[in-house]
Write a structure and sequence with these properties.
Blueprint (H helix, E strand, L loop, with lengths): L1 E5 L2 H6 L1 H10 L9 H12 L5 E2 L1 E6 L2 E6 L1 E6 L2 E6 L11 E2 L5 H13 L6 E8 L5 H7 L5 E9 L6 H8 L5 H12 L4 E5 L6 H19 L8 H16 L3 E8 L2 E11 L2 E9 L8 H15 L4 E3 L6 H4 L4 E11 L2 H11 L1 H12 L2 H12 L1
Parallel strand pairs: 6-8, 13-14
Antiparallel strand pairs: 1-3, 2-5, 3-4, 4-7, 5-6, 8-15, 9-14, 9-15, 10-11, 11-12, 12-13
Helix pairs in contact: 3-9, 8-9
Length: about 375
């Protein structure tokens, strides 16, 4: 078993075919583990902001059997070894050949990972509960992981759309939404369409981003899609997905005006509910909910096996499903500075310093307070 670390873009580009072939031989994996996804992110986001490639490649008898897509990224004053594209991926993981002895392969790659120089902290986010690497991380990293959830629907459990809809009808406020749909139709013809014209992609995605940013601004929040580098990444990823038939872009329109948009990916019989947006001026009609209902019905008609709502425990998702996948985020310091930074970020150092400050004489605390104000 031979292990290499890819550190330059040229070597990264050269493993495209091996990476793609491994996807075909790997255990069930996610869309966000494909080569094109990582290469597009590296080109538009990772490389411009100065991240350092650290892709671990495991070969057996000359054949690639596992890939760990990692980078070293600067976060404040700390260098963090993390998954590549973890800021745009709800799931991050290793790829491993299903015929390979997973435990031995992952352990050897892990030993190499721990020897990588140039990083202060190891941070691996978005590791699904069914990941082949999770048991290793649980054993090797003592820090308690943070946990998030991703609701999903196993569509193949249901005979058809009417059967499924009837099972969840009580959660969906059907009468209220039927009334809203009738009111919406009074404004003009309502249509649900799947975009299949490449010429329309940029305009629709740009509109979707504006709708998403508008929603964030309304909440006083921010996201990655207000950054030029991430917009360029998304536009490129959309074109790549359109070319290989994994893009799923749907629009709800009134009088040919897009009032709700969903950008997702169809991969391995799963539809990933990646970016849903809506026009805030049509909020009273619940356009996002109407689009989602049309989208789910389309999935039944087109033999989609799984509908993945992605990370987030928003209430509306649980109106449609009782199932969820847990996702874990692991972190561990590597260097002394990493330990200090890690404890500061997790809050333990802040609490320790506060406890020392609180035990100081009141006169000394006041003097320090005056100095800090200056």
């Amino acid at each position: 078993m031979k292990i290499d670390i890819v550190e330059d873009p040229q070597s990264f580009a050269q493993i495209r075919q091996e990476w793609t072939d491994l996807c075909l031989r790997s255990s069930p994996h996610q869309y966000f583990q494909t080569f094109d996804w990582h290469w597009t992110w590296w080109t538009h986001v990772g490389s411009p902001k100065g991240d350092k490639l650290r892709i671990i490649i495991v070969r057996e008898s000359g054949c690639v059997v596992s890939i760990w897509p990692l980078v070293i990224a600067r976060q404040s004053s700390c260098r963090v070894l993390r998954w590549m594209a973890d800021d745009v991926s709800d799931y991050c993981d290793v790829l491993i050949d299903r015929e390979t002895e997973a435990r031995e392969c992952l352990k050897k790659a892990w030993d190499v990972l721990r020897s990588i120089s140039g990083a202060d902290v190891l941070k691996l986010d978005h590791v699904r509960a069914d990941s082949p690497i999770r048991s290793l991380l649980e054993k090797e990293i003592c820090e308690t992981p943070s946990i998030s959830v991703a609701p999903f629907i196993e569509l193949e459990r249901w005979k058809n759309w009417p059967t499924y809809y009837a099972a969840f009808k009580k959660n969906l406020q059907v009468k209220t939404h039927s009334r809203k749909l009738r009111r919406l139709k009074e404004k003009g013809p309502v249509s649900f369409t799947i975009v299949n014209n490449e010429k329309n992609l940029d305009n629709i995605v740009q509109l979707m981003i504006r709708q998403k940013i508008g929603r964030f601004e309304e909440k006083g929040q921010s996201g990655v899609w207000d950054k030029g580098s991430h917009v360029a990444f998304l536009l490129s990823a959309v074109k790549n997905a359109f070319a290989d038939n994994t893009l799923h872009l749907s629009v709800l329109s009134v009088n040919d005006h897009a009032i709700a948009i969903h950008l997702g990916w169809r991969y391995n019989n799963c539809l990933y509910y990646y970016i849903p947006t809506f026009d805030l001026s049509f909020r009273q009609f619940s356009p996002g909910r109407i689009l989602l209902e049309n989208l789910l019905e389309w999935c039944f008609t087109n033999n989609v096996k799984m509908f993945d709502f992605m990370l987030g425990d928003e209430t509306y998702k649980y109106n449609w499903t009782n199932s969820e996948m847990q996702s874990y985020s692991y972190a561990s310091p590597i260097t002394l500075w990493g330990r200090v930074y890690f404890k500061w970020v997790t809050g333990s150092l802040k609490l320790f310093l506060k406890s020392i400050f609180d035990r100081m004489p009141s006169v000394l605390r006041r003097r320090m307070g005056i100095l800090l104000k200056k």
